[in-house]
Design goal:
single chain; mainly beta; 10% helix
């Protein structure tokens, strides 16, 4: 049986994701910055909107994960760069 997927938007680009799986901070950042490494010393900010019921928007922190929903939007930026 084929797993159902949802379409999420990461920095304006649609991506398919398994419907009942959470997505992690690292997975979202890697789509935007393919050279991302958790130990690269750079800071990243991940925000989301159109999320699940009791948490429709917020910030995804390093080491965290969030349940995805059809049409959910993620924004990723490097922070603290000079």
């Amino acid at each position: 049986m084929e797993k159902k997927t949802v379409t999420i938007i990461v920095e304006g680009t649609p991506h398919e994701w398994p419907k009942d799986e959470k997505i992690t901070f690292d997975q979202v950042v890697t789509w935007v910055f393919p050279d991302y490494s958790p130990s690269d010393g750079k800071a990243y900010t991940v925000t989301f909107e159109r999320g699940e019921g009791n948490k429709p928007e917020g910030q995804l922190v390093k080491g965290g994960s969030v349940k995805v929903k059809e049409g959910m939007i993620f924004n990723v930026s490097r922070t603290g760069e000079s």
